[in-house]
Each structure stands twice: as structure tokens, then as C-alpha cells.
Write the C-alpha cells for this entry.
Amino acid sequence: MHEVAPALIGVTLLVDGVGGRIVEVEAYDHEDPASHGYRGRTERNASMFGPPGHAYVYRSYGIHWCLNLVCEGEGIANAVLVRALEPTHGLDLMRKRRGLDDPRLLCSGPGRLCQALAVTREHDGLRIDRPPFSLRAARSAVDIAIGPRIGITKAAELPWRYGLAGSRFLSRPFPSPSR
DNA sequence: CTTTCGATGATCT
DNA sequence: GATCATCGAAAGG
């Protein structure tokens, strides 16, 4: 899980040919009170418990969709929330879907990214290595930033957020290395 | 720049 | 009935 999450940074994620490089991700494991899988399998989170390599998509705040990639063991609810992309493919379509021009605002957040890529409940449970999804390996090694996760109330202190250090496309900057 | 707040609906208690 | 892995607009410094 915590090997998979940072390994996703820099990977190109496309849905129907539209998407970009993953620059921000958060890990949620089965012993994590903040995870949807923590309290066991339900109708909503069923795909979290399915085989790895599938998508888990859920509705957030009744308004947005959020996309996870399920990792590791079938029957174990481990997943990675995709929080931000650096748009590289299908910019015009993303602008149209989002009603915005600024590339920085197209995919810099889990809800925004799903709107830009048109991810919905229909993608829940689909394999992420087959159409409409596609993944392309990172072109080269990247510098990974680590910090606390965003927007949660439980286990908020755990540093399970991973990102591309210094990227302009993060949903929020990572805390400075202190001083 | 910051903080606050409403929208909106499925899910879970 | 309460919660929520969010966003964007609005208001205040």
C-alpha cells in the first residue's frame, strides 16, 4: 500500500484518452479509521474489497465523484485516492467539462479531476488497465513529497498523502520541510 | 491573502 | 438524524 501509493506519482492516467500525470495521491488501508473500508464491506465500498487493479468510485458530499485505485489482496480493503493530475491529454475537453480555462484548476482535487475526466459511478469496479482507463508508467524517477491527508476528521495526523514535490498542479501545497 | 458557509444526497447509525 | 476522503462563492483583513 505505502509502496504502491508513491509509485503512482508520475504515472499517466487517462480515461477515454483524457487525463494526465498523477501528481497527488492518498493511501487508505483497512486498519485506517478514515477509510471507507474500515468498518467492513458495504454496498458502497464493495469494489474496495474486490481484486486489485480495479477502480473504486464513490459520491462525495452528494455532489462530487472521487476515484480510487484498489491495491493489494482481494478481500483486504486497501485503496489509493487519486487527488490531482497534471493535465496532458484532452485539455479542450476538460476545459469544456469544467467550464474553466486555467489548466491548474482542471484536475487539482479529487472532485475536479473526476469532473474533468467524466468519471462517475459507471466506472466503479472497472479494471484500470483496460479501456476506458489506461495507465502509462512514469517517464523517469520523481521527487516525492509526503504529508498529512486532506479533508478528513479521523486519523488526520497520519502522513499518508504523497505528491510530486513542487508541482503546480497539487490540490494544495505540501507543508514545508520546516525550519 | 484568510475564513466561513451552503449545496446536496447517498450512506450509515 | 448525523456524517462526509469536496468545491466554490462570498465576506473579511
Remarks:
- Residues 65 and 114 of chain A are 6 Å apart (CA to CA).
- Helices of chain A lie at 4-8, 91-98, 110-117.
